[in-house]
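G., before I forget:
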Amino acid sequence: MSGGLTGWLRGRVGLIAAVLLLVVVAAMAVAPWIFTPLDPLATDTSQVLQPPAWGHPFGTDQTGRDVFTRVVYGASYSLGVGVGATAAALVVGIIVGTLAGLAPRVIDSVAMRGVEILLAFPEFLIALFAIAVLGPGPVNVATAVGVAAVPAYIRVARAETLVVRRSGYVEAARGLGVHPLRVAVAHIVPNTLRPLGVIATIGIGTTIVAAAGLSFLGLGPQDPTPEWGLLLSGGRNLLGQAWWVAFFPGVLITLTVVSATVVGRRLRRAGEGRA
Amino acid sequence: MVLRRILARVAGMLVVVWGAATAAFLVLKLVPGDPVDVMLGVSAQASPELKQSIRAELGLDQPLVVQYLSYLSRLVRGDFGTSYQLRLPVTEVIGQQLGYTLQLAAASLAIALVIALVGAVLVHGRAARGVFSVLELLAISSPPFWIGLVLLSVFAFGLGWFPVAGADGIQSLILPALTIALPVAGILGQVLRTGLEDAEEQPFVTSARARGAGPARLVLRHTLRHAAIPALTLAGYIVGSLLGGAVVVESVFARPGLGRVALSAITNRDLPVVMGIIVFTAIVFVLVNLLVDLAYRAIDPRIHTPTTAIRGAR
Amino acid sequence: MIENREVVRISGLTVRFGQTVVVDSVSLSVAAGECLAIVGESGSGKTLTARALLGLLPDGASVAVDELVIDGVDARRYSQRDWRRIRGARVGLVSQDALVSLDPLRRVGAEVAEVIEIHGARGSGERMPRAGIVDTVTGMLARVAVPEPAERARQYPHELSGGLRQRALIASALAGEPGVLIADEPTTALDVTVQAQVLDLLAGLRRDGLGIVVISHDLAVVSGLADRVAVMKDGRIVEEGVTDEVLSRPQHPYTQMLLAAAPRLGDGPFADRVAARRRSPSIEITPGGLDTAAGGLLDQRESTPLLHATGLGRDFRRPDGSLRSAVDDVSLVVHAGASIGVVGESGSGKTTLARLLLAFDDPNRGSVSLDGVEWSGVPERRRRSRRGDIQLISQDPLGSFDPRYTVARIVAEGLRGDARRTSPGDRAARIRQLLDSVGLDASLEGRRPHELSGGQRQRVAIARALASEPRILVCDEPVSALDVSIQATIIDLLNALRRDLGVALVFVSHDLAVVAQLCDEVVVMKDGRVVESGATDRVFRHPEHPFTRALVAAVPRMP
Amino acid sequence: MFSRPGSFRIAGSLALVVSAALVLAGCSASAGTGEKVEGGTISFGVDVDPVGHLDVHSSQLDINAILQRPVFDSLVSQKADGTIVPWLATSWQVSDDQLQYTFTLRDDVTFSDGEKFDAAAVKANFDHIVDPATESAQASSLIGGEYYAGTEVIDPTTVRVSFSQPYAPFLANAASVQLGFYSPKVLAEHASELKAGGPGISVGSGPFILSKYTPGSELVYTKNPDYNWAPEGATAQGPATIDELDVKILPESSVRTSALTSGQVDVIGDTAPSSLTQVGDNFTVTSTESPGVPYSLYLNVTRPVFSDVTVRKAFAGGFDLDAAVKAVFNDSYQRAYSILGPTTPDSYDAALEKSASFDADAANDALDAAGWSERDSDGYRTKDGKRLSARWISYTPVNEDNANLANLIQDGLKKIGFEVVHDQLEPGAYLDAYLAGDYDLTDWGFLSADADVLRSHLGTGGYQNASHLSDPEIDATLASAVATTDGSTRAELYTKLQQWNAENAVIVPLYVPEYILASSDKVSGIEVDIHGWPLFSGASLTK
């Protein structure tokens, strides 16, 4: 069922490319100066809207800033939001989900009703509503996309907890007289973590897209912050005369998300193979 | 028994809507800033007395509990309040714009289904499937606004095949619908294909093949129905994508619709509209879930409530 | 046999996956009205051989064949399109589990009708009018003895009982009036009584002139049906001949081993059978020694029973809200060192009873005491320290292992008390000792569960159970997922444990033969109640309850 | 009203203050070569939907003024040469003390709902403007703010408006759409729905009738077939030529431009300078420099950083504004030298042009001299260990062009060691900071057809006095300017003010926004007013 390009993408080469790209993006986020000697905020009125060339591989924008440099520096923001919000959502999700999964049925069903209500809303709308409450801004965008992701993690954490809790090995441990707390620590949590980790890996991509979407709509950081969604939004009115301003940030977002997805799916398959 | 189940179901739906309405109320009470200031558009000339009278008129000077109860009682009567920004009843605001978004959502869904089905059912051969699944991955991973901009600049700005904006007829619907449809089609296609592939592994397919069934019959009479079950679980996600996508796409393509209303309500802190949209979304969700459940039942005769142990076991 | 026309003739069939040969130069033939059984353990290539007769080999398989004649047509150079013309019309397939082999989302009638829709009436290729199809389907279901066929046709597979489902599946395979029927483990998923009925049905079809190829892992099952038997191992037919000949005078060592390993009900003294088992000459088991006079298990001895269940009842709520008693008024006494079999068909409450005994579940009525101390209905924390005394061996050992754990860690979890608190070195030694005692090599310590074979997994599960030095092992179908030869070794192991360690066994199984081999006493359950109990020999030789009688009668016997 | 050119004109802002929309008739925008056609539909793409702000009496949105002009008529109209001509008023008299204006009205005017236009209608409308419940900022200041004393009906065709102090801009302001007239029936029956607007509510006596409104999407106007009361001397008398005017809301500038070039719309407003290159030869582009205060930075003189005039001047000359404006606007907008736009009537001081230029050395020297001579590790200047830093507040959304300009200014000043921290705040947060004076500079442009706009920007306590300037001499000059109707006297007084600012660098003008209207060759006869806003009553399609 997998052949040709998929085989390539699903196979080793694709995986290595994806990991490599993530590593590069992570490096951009941590140490952008390795990639470019320029200042992402430095303007140059003599270099306005220059097409991609040697000195400016991604061209320049309306104030003569180097798009490549801005994309590189943007990685720290986008990846920061992606990883930070996902991690926070994951932690909250695991705690609430696991507790709900282990709690008596009454508490569980009350908690799940609440989560169900939250799940009634598309993640992007929750993020939007969170912005409505918090107001726009870079930190608030991270919070908003994090909040939006939480219900899904709770649900998965709970479902996984229930699966593991009803699994043969938890029953076996119980049958051996292992203390419930030890069962939770030794079996339940570790075994729910793996699927959650996989989902979170893919979730980083989703979060990056959601945060970029909010920025795109003008609800995130403001210019001159080099955030990818904002860079894209800044280029939308220049599509006719300077396609590169919007094009490269868009490509970077897509590639990053594709990579996260490829890696996540790979992890999932690895997990399935073992179970 | 059946009646009791239906009643329980309806009650469950109402609980979700009520919960969403309550959450919306509470959360939006946390919004910083005086709603009256927001409402007046920070006009400097509004005297404190005027603000006070507006506050009284809106019942904002009442205790929270009273406000909540009157909010609920108005909701029950279908009164969602009046938009600060548009100065219209929220129901009217939503009603006016609903059509556009429904059109967009329906078109998106149709396009997504067609692409996904074509991709899952008709695309055969390793190479073709490979290309298709890479495209799906790209579609899933690309931010919708990026897809929209690319489509816009290629097909509207560049080739001039479609209008660049607005909501005039079917022509102006295609690009926005496609923008929302592509990621949805990506996910749906993957799930359908995986579902088909899983179903193909099932023993009943061997039985059917042993009866001499050809590929078309296998898909149409057997595996597609099985693949539809996991695809149905995506319904919530898809509806979410349609609504969330509408926010972005209506902005990119300058289309009217609920997404635009939601965005402008949020940027302008138009709280009654925000609350209205929250409650509306909850209702949509509840209805979609109901439809999905009915669809499950229609597709899968095995569905029944699982046996539950009565007290004594834990 | 009515006629001698050959309906299947195949020679030199070789199937490869890449470089691996999975079916090696297989030749066989079946005449109309004849039944050929292909018998072998998993991986022997028997199923692939059967599928080759339908052109239904999986992707990636390459086939070479010298001769391939199906119901009179030469199918050697057949494309998939050609195959589709004869599948259903000239050759039909019945597979193992009708619950999944019939499309669960379609009505039974639609499944039977499919063949007619594809091939027309009687495989003629003529389109049949709708009403005609309905009639034909009803007639077909009636032919395989489905009661109320018209109503059944409108039901979904899950709404039918296992036996009816299997009949419907057979009907769907026969609707195109093929000359050959391939039956791949047609009764494996069924209870014995139902199995017997289905075997009867197949025998009837054979008498009507159908050529049948039946695939099975179980010699006993096919012994009554097949005219000839072909024994397969590693892709080759190692022995083929008239059924009686093969069973009574097996030539090939593998066939001999299979025959020896297969548990049998009521043939020869227990010890003789065991001694005949060549694979485990070192194990000796002394049967009896316990007074198990007819009348029962209940409090025959003075000493405090190890496990004592009285008047157990456990209810579940049906979807419509009504109550169903999965276990009702069951009493059971297990003395130290005893071995008690619990037999019954699916849904009889065996597993629920096992869970109640293990206190994984609390009864709605009645109580269980362990070693004279209350065991059911007490808070879990009071049970925890005593749990090591009673351990479960389940049908699915893989599911009972944390997938992240190594074998050593899995076994270590079973250690309790002092054994747990010793030095890492001592603990490692103890684990090795435990592995050794279940016949596992110490080199497996570092493996993870999915890297083990089925037999190895069950041994690890037993080692873990032994780690807590239990006094009772509750075994829930511990061998039913295993091949016969492996099955035999596990049974030997359990026997040895009981003998050497004095561990009592409660052995839950649907397989009377296995129980007969292992248990001194037996309890027969039906619909949650005990219908008969007593010494194994007595119950199986002279069953008193009609149900027990039916059960024993249905067990397939080799001639 | 604040005005920020580019893709966004401001929605929801904090303005009151005087502003006059003089209608400068006769600026012909389009001259198609083809033959005129009777009837047909012209579609007009605009950037903002005035949703919720459709009431001419309370709205502060430029876009609403543009979109309601076809529906609402005013007492008078102002011609290009500044003279006021009769419209709904046939004649008027001003009392000697300049406190009373008496208008004689036409008696053949009806509103599109059939109501008659008379003195009572004028009073009802003016009363509505000053009614606190109307929450009017713009119109109530145009009518004179606290100077306005009241309106009385003398007889059905005579009405008198009174003031407590002389208020020179009134006659010109009376020409604005904000002082236009609703049908009295609407004011009586639908007062609470005016802001929502729409057919049957936004009812005036103009050449067009609002017949359909879809918020966020479009406004459709059909011609008023009975219209026969155009302003005196207007080229188009009688009913409009076209049957329908179809306004499309297209927020993105690139989308508007493409909609025009692809033929989806015939005319677009507020065209982005950056997209002009995409508009080909087959289109007519009319740019009109906006009168009023150019887009400027307001330096808060009460704050330590900018209390020193040397620092202010170093700031103003410390970045290359010419290059920045050129980079961002591609020569479409001109750099501003004065605090009044060149097209503001009776006021602009052209002598200031080219007077200021970028001189980094001079700015550096001046800052050294002012004591900001040390540098910190980031390269910024310090004095007594304190960094030379200014907080710039803007309210969101900031349009892209202005954001780019801000980046260039920030980056330019960084090079002379002057840190500018740009905080972009939500309107609410902005208002808090603004009212608290917690900022060193802020920015806006202010569209106004009367130089009296400076009163609020420079006068003590003025609402737009973001610089917190308080100078008795300035206040006195502003007061005499508002009290005189003599053009040359006013020009003299306003020149003095412009020169004073050039010396003191309290307001740093950046560029003169323009309203850019682009239309296809299919249409002709679109006139523009003093703001560059289109008037469609004489427009027609050509073959």
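Residues 166 and 483 of chain D are 5 Å apart (CA to CA). Confidence is low (pLDDT under 50) at residues 1-32 of chain D.

More on Monday.
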